[in-house]
Amino acid sequence: MKSFRKELWFNTSSRREFINITPEVEEVLRESGIKEGFLLCNAMHITASVFINDDESGLHNDFEVWLEKLAPEKPHSQYQHNGFEDNADAHLKRSVMGREVVAAVTGGKLDFGPWEQIFYGEFDGKRKKRVLVKIIGE
C-alpha cells in the first residue's frame, strides 16, 4: 500500500464562495498513480469546508441563503467570538457544511454517483487558504 499527499491552494475574491475543485482533485489522483483505495480531501482552515454535492448554481445560491439564515454574518455583535475578528458566522457555517470528504478510488477514478462533485466552500475569504488531498491505496 502507498500514500500520496498534496496541498491545493485557493484565494477567493469574495468572503463566501463555492468552488468546484473536482478537476484539481482528479489531477492529484492521476499524479498519485493509485488505482484502488481511498481519497481524503479536507479544508485546512476552520472557516472553510469541503463537501460533495451537485454543481448547480441554483443549489449554490440556496446554500448561501440557507447558511446566512442559520448564521448571519451581521450584526457582528451577536457573536461572543467576534472581538479581534469578525468571522464567528464563518466558523458556524463550516460546522454545518463539514470539514472533509472521503471518496472511494476505483480503477484510478473517483467512484462517484452521476452528479457528485467536490466543492471547496469558503466562508471567510479574500486570502490564501489550502486544502489537503491524501490518497491511500495501491
Q: Beta-sheet strand percentage? A: 35-45%
Characterize the overall form. Answer: elongated
Order of SSEs, N→C?
EEHEEHHEEEE
Low-confidence stretches: none
The largest beta-sheet arranges its strands as 1-8-3-5-6
Helix content: 25-40%
- Report the CATH architecture: Sandwich
Total discrete domains: 1
CATH level-1 class: Mainly Beta
Number of strands: 8
CATH superfamily (homologous) name: YjbQ-like
Structural class: alpha+beta
**Average pLDDT value?**
97
Q: Enumerate how many helices there are, as a single number.
A: 3
Q: How far is the N terminus from the C terminus?
A: 5 Å
| Rg calculated over all Cα atoms | 16 Å
Per CATH, what is the topology? Answer: Jelly Rolls
Structure description:
The strands form 2 sheets. A 5-stranded antiparallel β-sheet has the order 1-8-3-5-6, with helices on one face. It is α+β, with helices and mostly antiparallel strands and 138 residues long. A hairpin with a 2-residue loop joins strand 5 (100-106) and strand 6. The mean pLDDT is 97. Helices cover 25% and strands 38% of the residues. The chain has one domain: YjbQ-like (Jelly Rolls). The protein is built from 3 helices and 8 strands.
